Amino acid sequence: MEKIAIVGVGNTKIGEWYENSLRGLTDIAISKALESANIEPKEIESTFIGSMSSGIFNQQEHISALIGPHSGVYAPALRVESACASGSQALRVAMMAIGAGYYDTALVIGVEKMTDLIDIGDITTALGTASDSSWELGVGATFPALFALMMRAHMHKYGSTLEEFASVAVKNHDNGSLNPDAQFRKKVTMDTVMNSRVIADPIRLFDCSPVSDGAAAVIVTTESLAKKYTDDPVYIAGTGAGTDHIALHQRPDITTMESTKRAVKTAFDMAKIKTKDVDFIEVHDCFTIAEVITLEDIGFCKKGQGGKFSLEGETALNSKISVNPSGGLKAKGHPVGATGIYQVIEVFHQLRNEAGKRQVTNNNIGVTHNIGGSGATCVVNVFSRGD
Amino acid sequence: MEKIAIVGVGNTKIGEWYENSLRGLTDIAISKALESANIEPKEIESTFIGSMSSGIFNQQEHISALIGPHSGVYAPALRVESACASGSQALRVAMMAIGAGYYDTALVIGVEKMTDLIDIGDITTALGTASDSSWELGVGATFPALFALMMRAHMHKYGSTLEEFASVAVKNHDNGSLNPDAQFRKKVTMDTVMNSRVIADPIRLFDCSPVSDGAAAVIVTTESLAKKYTDDPVYIAGTGAGTDHIALHQRPDITTMESTKRAVKTAFDMAKIKTKDVDFIEVHDCFTIAEVITLEDIGFCKKGQGGKFSLEGETALNSKISVNPSGGLKAKGHPVGATGIYQVIEVFHQLRNEAGKRQVTNNNIGVTHNIGGSGATCVVNVFSRGD
């Protein structure tokens, strides 16, 4: 199978875009991506959009028809949804479409405009539709509560500490302070994190990623066409997805994510790599516990040691394994359905030595890890320069 | 490229399933489809789900993780959305995934559980999110209103008559009366249709498809594996999709659908057929005007003559071209995101001579035509027995 290449990217800064709209934000991302690849809208043969809940956030379904034509792209379009993993799933579908020969060149977009809802309770409820609505959200278990259960279970089973979890937030804010597109560009101290107010015990405010708006777009094409658009294409060497039970109570162990293990195995096998070959990774740190569990599930450290591994600085920029050089969901921000594409764009820039002050020095293999819900969906993609 | 085969199908009856749930309905459809193909859940390698708005109808996004595991299918899953064309888009994505070699065998589901919303105003608003929410729904133009504009424009431009439109509803109720899975199994007279109450002038109640619940599932696999599961596989000979501006005011002519023309050209070219080769077709008659426009856009009759063509009986069962032998959206029902898969299942049964009293006698080539919104999205698929 011919490899798929990324030849251009574009995105908005992540933030609270009260003065802009879903279609306005995507227009910015699409324009930048087209310019980046030096490609005309008419050369785009298909569009794939990842978005979690434009229906609830913006009272707008069918954004596949809203977005492309608004930006002058009239190619056949569809939306892909798997909660917060929607962006990465959209990229996978684009790879499938090109791999099967339906199209040569596609536009892949991730977008979420969350601040059209003003009330934080409404936003939390909207996000909660990615859990089991009847058996979790419906009985009051919002996402902070669900991840609090996972964090408490992890502390109980492995003796992990609040300090260890806090170190994830501190590191990601350190990295975010170097990212001009990040929502939060302030460093924070361990003290600030550990003394922030309790959201759902043991999760505190600084264990949580924020409410964010953002749109991100990438142009993908075949290996043979890639050099037409850029001298430095980035190749998708492997992709994998995993699905597990949506509700926590259906899983035998809530201190691990089976979907991550499944996605990693498929993606790494396809890319012919092992965990030790990964130079840097963007992981889905919607809450600090999620980054800790992921470090363990991918095998960067032993099971139960993810927090210690983080506290010891092994995941800092240009340490043992650079985790979330972008600042992650915690500091860069988390426009849910767009996050997967933002992760890809970070890897794209890192592999091309375009990441400025947060550039990783070992940059041959970059990976993205994007989950939906409390981990019922996971998508892992592996990227390289192909040389 | 190897052809994709459908080897098993299953669905619920369409209706108002107040006593069941989204996951309950899909469980019925999946169980029947697995049994139909005599396949074990573990043989399913991926699941693709079409649903328009489970977020608004059921306060449940992320149904890709909800549905599969609930029915014992743990394969990687994702949801595809293009409003009422979601089901057909999900089938296209499954074809891409298999065509690119990611999987050999997939489960494709369409589901919509609309009656979790009780108030008809809430349902109409939910459906309106498939239009331009800011510039159509937001100013009160719900779907009956948008299609009323198209119908009035068609009457003005071509002199089509209310009687002609009514003939579409009468014919589809005739066919639906022969379909045990249809929501409405009563024949209706021209008089009943033309004297039903006005919804949005000139659209009357019997010009509209109903609010419906339903789930439908098909098992797809490669040509080489198909005979393992059934002696009579149905093959997808061609597929095409088109995207146009979402809002009516952005289109130069609202008496035609550019998306239909684009989808038909791609699908028919891929299948190497012309319009005259089509033996029967399931078209997207969300309102009677939609069927009339589609007859013209596909070329079964001259532009502007779709209503006359219908009134003259040319689209009745086993006449010149059998249109909506299932009863169509009008009589069979319209569980929006599921409709595309119900269309496929009708074609599957017709091609295999399993359609009972509504069996079409010329049954070599069957086509499905599925639109999203007021026609901004269209998906057309062509099916044959492959012999």
The count of strands of chain A amounts to 12
Oligomer: homodimer
Helix content of chain A: 25-40%
Number of helices of chain A: 14
Uncertain stretches of 5 or more adjacent residues of chain A: none
Query: What is the spatial order of strands in the main beta sheet of chain A?
Result: 3-2-4-7-1-8-12-11-9-10
- Name the biggest interface: A-B, 60 and 59 residues
Main beta sheet of chain A: 10 strands, mixed
**Helix-and-strand structural type of chain A:** alpha/beta
Net shape of chain A: globular
Rg of chain A: 19 Å
Describe the fold and architecture.
The structure is a homodimer of 387-residue chains. The radius of gyration of chain A is 19 Å and the shape is globular. Chain A has 14 helices and 12 strands. Helix content of chain A is 37%, strand content 19%. Chain A has helices spanning 22-37, 54-58, 63-70, 86-99, 120-128, 143-158, 162-176, 190-194, 223-229, 258-271, 288-298, 306-311, 328-332, 339-351, and strands spanning 4-11, 46-50, 77-81, 105-113, 198-200, 203-204, 213-222, 234-243, 280-282, 322-323, 365-372, 377-384. The first copy, chain A, is α/β, with parallel strands linked by helices and 387 residues long. In chain A, α7 (162-176) packs across α11 (288-298). At the A-B interface, α2, α3, β3, α4 and β8 of A face α2, α3, β3, α4 and β8 of B. β3 of chain A pairs antiparallel with β3 (77-81) of chain B, so a sheet runs across the interface.
